[in-house]
Amino acid sequence: MNNFLELKNIIKDYRGEAGSKLLVLDKINFTINEDDYITSVLAPAGCGKTTLLRIISGLDYEYEGSILLKGNKVINKLPFIPENPSSFPWLDVEGNIKIVFRMLDNLGSTIDYKLQELIDLTGLTGYEKHFPDNKSYGFRFRISLARAIAVSSQIILLDDPFKLMNAETKEELLQLIKNISSSRGLRFLISTSNITDSFEISNRIFLMSNNPASVIEDIQIGKNSQGSEQRKNELKVLLEKGNLKSLANLSI
Amino acid sequence: MSDRLHSRGKYAYLLIAFILFWIVLFEFVLSANSFLPSPYFVIISIGDLFSDYHILVNILSTLTAVYFSIIAALFIIWVFRIYLVNGHNLIRHTIDALGWFAGFVPSIILAFFLIYWLDGSGYVKYIFGSFSCLILFFFKLEDAAGKIGSEYIDAAVSLGADHKMISGKIRWKSVIPAVAHYVPEIHLYLWSMIIIIEYIKGGSGLGVVFRQALLYKDLPVLFSTALFTIIVILLAESLIKYLNNKYFARVME
User: Fold this and answer.
1) Owning domain of residue A169
2) Taking every pair of C-alpha atoms in chain B, what is the biggest distance, in angstroms?
3) Which of B152, B159, B253 lies nearest to residue A100, judging by beta carbons?
4) Is residue A11 part of a domain?
5) Chain A neighbors of B156, CB-CB under 8 A
6) What is the Cβ-side half-sphere exposure of residue B215, based on CA atoms within 13 angstroms?
C-alpha cells in the first residue's frame, strides 16, 4: 500500500503570557494511503482540528514533526477551505475562479481545468454571473470548492464544511464531494465533529481526543462496512451516555 | 429596505409638515417678524442671490473645495493602499498618533490655525479639506483592515496567492466598501467645515454669502441660501449613495 500523506509526530503548542505553554496537538501520527480518497479527522469541537489542517496546508509552519506527501516534504501549500465562507463577495462566480487562474499564472503553474468545466463540476452552471454575498453557505462552499479544484492539487482540505449547513444542503454537498472524488480521483481530508457525517462520507476516519489532541483510533470503513457501522453506533451510544469524556463536544 | 423607505417617508412627511407650517404661520399669521422670513420674500430673494450675491460662482467655489478634498484624499489613499492595508508600522503609528491628537484637538481648531497661519491664501479650505479628509479615511481604513476575516487570507494563501496579490486583490478590495460607505459621512462633515472656513476667512464660497447676508441683515437671502445649500447637499448625497450602492455594495460577512 502506497502512502499518500504522512504525519509524523506533529506537536503544536501556543505560548501564553509569562512563558506558559498550551499543548494543542500531541504527537499526531497518521498516514493516508493512495486509496483513501475521503478521510475524516473526527474530533470534538475546539480540540485543534483547524490548527491541524492549517499545519497540513502549510499556513501554519510553527510546529514540530514532519509532513510528507508521497514520501517528500510538502513544498507548495495545499488548498484549504475554511469553515466560514471564503469566496470573495466583490467577485461573481466566474471572477472568483478566474482569480485563482491568475494566481497560478503568476506562479508559472499550468492550468489544467477550464472555467466552465469547474463551474459544471461544482454544480454552479447558470450562476456564473451571480455574486456570493447574500447566498447560502452551500453556494459559497461550491465556489470555494471550484477554486480549490482549480489548483490541481491531489488533496483538498475541508475544515468542518457542513457545520453551518442545513440538512438538505449538507446531503447535496456530501454527494457532490463523493462524485468529484470518484470521477476526478481527488482526495479530501475533512475535519468534523459530527459522527454521522464522518461515517457517511469517509473511507477512513482518524478519531482524535481532546486536551491535547491525539489520534486514538484509526477506523477503516471501506474494509469492513459492518464493523464500521457497529463502531459508529458504539460511538454514538458512548457519547449519549457521556462515557467519552475526552470526546465530549462531538455531535451525532 | 422597507425600514429605510419607511424612515425616508417619515422625513418627507416632516419636511412637508414644516413647509406647510412655515407658509401658514409666517405668510399669513406672523408675516412681519425677525425670526423667519415669509415665503413670499424668500422667493423674491432668489433673484438677489444671483444678481447681488453671485451664488453660482460662490457655490462652485464651495463645491470645488469639497470634491477636490475628497478626490485628493482618495487618490493619496489609492497610491499608498498596499502600505495602508498591510498595517505598515510607520503608517500605523502615525495614524494612532493622529488619532490620539484628534482626541484632544477638535478639527475646528486646526481650521482656525490654518486660517491665521496662511492668512490671505485661497488654498486654506483645500488644504484643510484634503488633510482632514485624508486623516478620517486613514482611521476608517485602519479599522476596516483590522476586520478582514482571516478565512479570506487563509484560503487565498493556500491557493497560491503571493504577498502582492493578497495586498492588492484581497485586502485592498475588501476594505473598499468600508471606505466608500464612509464617503457620505465625510461629505457632510466637509460641507459644514468648508462653509465655516469660508465664513471666517472670506474670499469666495457659500460661507461668504451667509456672512454677507448676515452683515446686511438680509433674512430672506439667508434663508434661501440655506435652502439652496441643503438642496445641493441632499442631491450630492443621494448621488454618492446611489454610486455606492451600485459599485461598492458587496461587503465581507
Assistant:
1) 35-63+77-246
2) 75
3) B159
4) no
5) 86, 103
6) 10
Residue A218 lies in a domain: yes
The ipTM estimated for the assembled molecules is 0.83
Q: Give dist(CA B5, CA A247) in Å, integer.
A: 51
B179 contact residues in A (CB cutoff 8 A): none
Q: How far apart are CA A104 and CA A216, in angstroms?
A: 38
Across residues B21-25, what is the average pLDDT? 80
| Closest CA–CA distance from residue B152 to any residue of chain A (Å) | 5
Tell if the CB–CB gap between B152 and A133 is shorter than 8 Å. Answer: no
pTM beyond cutoff 0.95: no
pLDDT on residue B24:
81
* Whether the Cβ atoms of residue A97 and residue A143 lie closer than 8 Å to each other: yes
CA-to-CA dists, residue B136 to A86, B81, B101, B140, angstroms:
29, 15, 13, 6
* Residue at A144 is within a domain: yes
**Alpha carbons A145 and A131: distance in angstroms, whole number:** 15
Alpha carbon distance B199, B206 (integer Å): 8
List of chain B residues whose C-beta atoms are within 8 Å of the C-beta of residue A88? 152, 170, 173-174
H-helix or E-strand containing B241?
Answer: helix B219-247
Tens digit of each residue's pLDDT (9 = 90 or more) over B109-166: 888 888 888 876 778 899 999 999 998 998 888 888 888 888 889 889 998 888 888 8
Q: Which of A18-32, A175-189, B3-17 has the highest mean pLDDT?
A: A175-189
3-state secondary structure of A45: coil
Residue A42 maps to a domain: yes
Residue A47, domain CATH: 3.40.50.300
Q: How many domains does chain A have?
A: 1
**Chain B, 203-242: which have a CB under 8 Å from a chain A CB?**
none
Q: Scanning every residue of chain A, which has its alpha carbon at the shortest distance from the alpha carbon of B163? A: A103
Closest to A118 (Cα-Cα) out of A98, A92, A138, A133: A98
The number of beta carbons lying within 10 Å of the beta carbon of residue B154 is 23
**Weakest mean pLDDT among A210-219, A220-229, B64-73, B75-84:** A220-229
How close A136 comes to chain B (CA, Å)?
A: 12
Interface of B with A in 116-155 (CB under 8 A): 149-152, 154-155
Distance from CA of A241 to the nearest CA of B (A): 36
List chain B residues with CB under 8 Å of A86. Answer: 149, 151-152, 154-156
Choose the most confident range, by mean pLDDT, from A66-75, A150-159, B25-34, B120-129.
Answer: A150-159
Nearest alpha carbon to residue B144 among B175, B171, B167: B175
CA dist., res. A85 & res. A144, Å (int): 8
